[in-house]
Design goal:
With about 575 residues, this protein is an alpha/beta fold. Helix content is about 40%, strand content about 20%.
């Protein structure tokens, strides 16, 4: 194992030479895979993770102007892709078609999912569906796992306070289902996403929205019925659709991983820096083997990238890509401060929101000169929660009796296994109130909104990107290409000025990864039981288990008296 790892790392950093140019190429994209939003920050993960979602979007945008690329062949997702990703992919395919490039998509069935798998490829010239499969796109469901019943069963008391009623992350520990406030917020979110999904699909299939709504909500259909209803264009198998794409191009398929267009050389230099996953202090712990493949929005790492950009006089503007549901308010504040320093250097900062940029993710974005989000992005969640699990009663069920002595103030014992005293609870509320006030103040300043207006749309409530724009939390709706164009405009350049894209990935070196992994194994290098379990759950595909482990990891981190974090929401 330890011989293999260095060999792989060395090979991954050996230059492979200039990629071969293929004439009349058909770029092949497989949406059944679920890459991370952004390039990996660990060396080993980078060697194996393939093309990130952001890189895919940038390559598709370059392909629109590349005469060697004639079109795109897409293997459609069978289950849910995520509405924000579907929206960004659709925009990429529309740009390709506007430049006379074709898009052919093949699906082996749209199976028990929301509209995103179909919406992602609805702009294709041809949609193929495999015979014998089904077409199931009847609506959209957002699902959250609630642990309140489990806490009650095992006599664990979530001593958690929240600001305010919409801060659903706290409810996942305390409740057995949605509160009335959060049920209303989630329904509004689902309605927004479903409505503009139908509008996009209807426009692409050239029918009115009411007709498309009726067709989709009446599904499932057999493949033959979907074809007769003109929801798809052809019935056939993957190799037949691929052959049709090659024939149309007069060339061969080229995997998106093997397509490396030149993204540099333009007049306008825009650095693209990103943060993805849980927002944590430090460098993300990306130096041990258990962290591989698990994105971490590490404040030291992201802030360093931003501060380096502030000092680089060759860079004209920044696009800051955020795909995160939040985490530590301290880490979020550190990144927010780094954004301010980039602006102080005279550079404009445009945030491009991914699938989610909520709570701490929104905190980090708040001061940007412009915020661009997909209409389906989950954002907002301007709120805070904090506390602990009081597990003393649970331990006593097993004959374990916790006892303690405390020297100093009463709050020194606040994070013991016992329940909070009234004095401790008052101190906790005071601390959370201060964090909430700072958060809302930063949003008011950054968005140039009255504090009262921010307080009306805050309270922990999540919004779709579309509704966030209406509330002044987002400037524009669109994808990362729109964000790049916005950065160019804010930097004072013209639309015809080509953008030189500098992907800024502050990556863990091979040496750091090796030393982190070898220093006594995973646990000695800082990996907790929850981190190891999370990594294993991800590897075996247990998404729900991974989601629950993430929830527990957030609240169990030492010293985290407060969290600016949104609950994990499964879209299907």
């Amino acid at each position: 194992f330890f011989i293999l790892i260095p060999l792989v790392l060395i090979m991954s950093f050996v230059p492979s030479g200039e990629p071969a140019r293929v004439q009349n190429a058909v770029l092949q994209i497989d949406l059944r895979e679920t890459p991370n939003d952004q390039p990996a920050t660990e060396a080993l993960a980078a060697a194996f993770s393939g093309t990130s979602f952001v890189e895919t979007l940038l390559r598709l945008n370059a392909a629109a102007d590349d005469p060697s690329v004639k079109g795109v062949f897409v293997r459609a997702a069978e289950m849910n892709l995520g509405s924000s990703r579907a929206e960004e992919l659709r925009e990429a395919f529309l740009r390709l078609r506007a430049k006379n490039k074709f898009v052919i998509a093949h699906s082996q069935g749209f199976l028990a999912s929301g509209p995103s798998a179909y919406r992602a490829i609805s702009a294709a010239n041809e949609i193929w569906l495999q015979p014998g499969t089904s077409f199931e796109t009847p609506g959209i469901t957002f699902e959250t796992m609630f642990l309140g019943g489990a806490m009650e069963k095992f006599k664990v008391t979530p001593e958690i306070e929240q600001f305010y009623e919409f801060k659903g992350a706290a409810d996942t520990y305390k409740q057995k289902g949605y509160t009335s406030a959060n049920a209303a917020a989630m329904t509004a979110l689902a309605t927004s996403v479903w409505t503009h999904s139908i509008a996009d699909i209807a426009a692409d299939r050239k029918v009115d929205a009411a007709t498309m709504r009726a067709l989709l909500e009446a599904s499932p259909y057999t493949a033959q019925t979907a074809f007769e209803l003109k929801l798809v264009d052809k019935l056939g198998y993957p190799e037949e659709a691929a052959a049709a794409a090659e024939k149309m191009a007069g060339g061969k398929l080229l995997a998106i991983d093997d397509y490396h267009p030149n993204l540099t050389g333009g007049r306008v230099v825009v650095a693209v820096v990103g943060g993805e996953g849980d927002i944590v202090t430090g460098d993300g712990g990306g130096t041990n083997i258990t962290s591989i493949g698990t994105p971490s929005f590490a404040s030291d790492r992201v802030a360093k990238s931003l501060l380096d950009i502030a000092e680089d006089k060759s860079i004209n503007a920044v696009v800051f890509r955020i795909d995160s549901g939040g985490g530590s308010p301290t880490a979020s504040d550190q990144v927010w401060n780094a954004v301010k320093k980039v602006q102080a250097s005279g550079k404009k900062v445009v945030v491009s929101m991914g699938s989610m940029a909520a709570s701490g993710g929104y905190y980090a974005a708040a001061s940007a000169d412009s915020i661009v989000a997909a209409r389906s992005t989950i954002t907002g969640s301007i709120g805070v929660f904090g506390g602990k699990f009081a597990i003393a009663d649970a331990l006593r069920e097993f004959g374990i009796n916790p006892d303690s002595v405390t020297v100093g103030g009463d709050f020194a014992a606040a994070y013991s296994t016992e329940k909070l005293t009234p004095t401790q609870r008052a101190k906790l509320l005071e601390s959370l109130q201060a964090t909430y006030d700072r958060f809302t103040g930063i949003v008011a300043e950054g968005r140039n909104l009255p504090l009262q207006k921010v307080q009306e749309v805050a309270r922990g409530r999540i919004w779709s990107g579309e509704d966030a724009q209406k509330n002044g939390l987002v400037n524009k709706t669109g994808d990362i290409v729109i964000a790049l164009e916005e950065a160019r405009a804010l930097a004072g350049f013209k639309p015809e000025d080509k953008i030189d894209i500098r992907l800024n990935v502050n990556r863990t070196t091979p040496f750091e990864l090796l030393t982190g992994s070898m220093m006594g194994g995973a646990k000695a290098s800082g990996a907790s039981d929850l981190q190891i379990a999370r990594a294993l759950a991800t590897i075996v595909g247990e998404n729900r288990a991974a989601m629950l482990i993430d929830q527990l990891r957030h609240i169990s981190q030492p010293g985290n008296g407060a969290q600016v974090w949104s609950p994990p929401v499964m879209e299907r």
